[in-house]
Design goal:
The protein has 13 helices and 16 strands. It is an alpha/beta fold. A seven-stranded mixed beta sheet has the order 2-3-1-4-5-6-14, sandwiched between helices. Strand 9, helix 9 and strand 10 form a beta-alpha-beta unit. The chain is globular, with a radius of gyration of 21 Å.
Amino acid sequence: MSSLIKRLGISVVVAGALASTHATAQDTIRIGAPFELSGRFVAYGAQGKRGVEMAVDVYGGKIGNKKIEVLFRDVQSNNQAAVTAFTELTQQEKVDFVIGPIASGIVAASVPAWRQSKPLWIVPGSSSTQLEDAMKGEPLFFHTYPWAYQYHEGTAKALADAMGKGKKVAIVYSDGAYGREQLPWAKEFYTKNGFTVVATELVREGAADLNPVLQKIRLTRPDVLVGIVQTTDAIQLAKQIHVAKLNIPVLVGTAYPQLQEWAQATGEAADGWIGATTYLPGMKRAADPKLAKLFPSLNDWEADFKKRYNREPEFLDVTNYTSAMMLLVAIERAGTTDKEKVAKELATLNIQTMLGTSNFVPTPGGAVHQAFNDMVVFQRDGDKFVVLFPADAADGKLKLKK
C-alpha cells in the first residue's frame, strides 16, 4: 500500500462514519453506505463495512484532490430504519453514490427511497428476483451478488452429476421474502436435474423449535435436504437436524454454509453442509495486469486482509471491497462525480478482480448491470472447503453424511 501511496503522491485519509463539518461538496467525494451494523443481519453489515473501508484505504483516500468520504449509516437490520437512513443520505446529505445494504428484505425496503433521487446504487447483496424485476431497465442500478436462481442452478447440477438421477429432495423454507422467493427456483432446478421433490416445509422466521417440521421430513426419507433460510434461522436448522439424527446424506444451504459466524455457532453440525458462492478462501485468481495494487491476486489480497483484521475474509468482505473499488476507479476514469458519466465508466470497466472479471451484463429478468455470475459449489469438510463445481475448479468429490 505504501508504494501505491508514494506513486500517487497523496496522503492517507481514513473515511469516517460522519461527514466532516468543514468539508464542502467541492473537495469531497461522498459515498453513502447504509449497512446492517446491528440487529440480526449484523454479520452482513460488518463485512460490508470492512470491505468498503479497506477499499478506500488501499485507494489512498483521495481521487485527484478530492477526499473520499464514506457516510456509514446503521440500518439496524430493520426495514423502516433502512428507509430512514437511505432518505437521509440521498435527500439531506445529497449523495450521488450508494453502496449497500445487503439483506434481501432490507434492500427491497430501500427501493422507494432510492427512486426519489436515483443515485448510482451498487447492491452487494440481495438475491431476490423481485429486486431484479423492480430494477428492470434502470441504468444507475448495479448488482454484484448472485440472484436466487443462480444458487440452485449450479448446486442442483453439481449434485446430479455426483449422485445421479432419481434422488429425492426435501426443501425447508422460511416464511419471509427470502424463503418464499427462492422456493420456486429450487423446485424448478432440482426437478430439471432429475430429482424428485418429496417435501416442501415452511418454517417461521425466528422459530425456536423446528422439530415438528423435521419429523415430517424424516418420514419422506430424502436423499437431499435444502434449507432456504436466513443465517440466524440456519443456525437453528443445522443444530436441530444434527441433534435429531435425521441421517440425510446431503444437506444444502445457500450462502450461509460459508459464513464463519454460522460455522462457529453450529459447531460440529456444520460439517458436510453444501453451499454456493462466488468466493472461497484459497481460490486462485490472478491480479489485474494494469491495476495490481488495487486488484491484487486473491492470495495477496487475503494476506493484506488478514494483516488488517486478524481474521479470515468472507465472501461479503471480498464482494464489498471489489464493489467499492470498482466505483472508485470508475469515478477517477470519469473525471467527474456526475453519476451518469460514472455509471457509463462502471458498466465498461473490464477489470480482473478477486471475484472474476468485472463485466456487467443484462440479466434474464431485465436488470441492466449484473456482475459475477459464475457460482462455485462447495462442501464443508471440517474447517476446509472442498470445491465440487464447476468441474475445472473442483478439488474433491461429494461426501455423503452418515
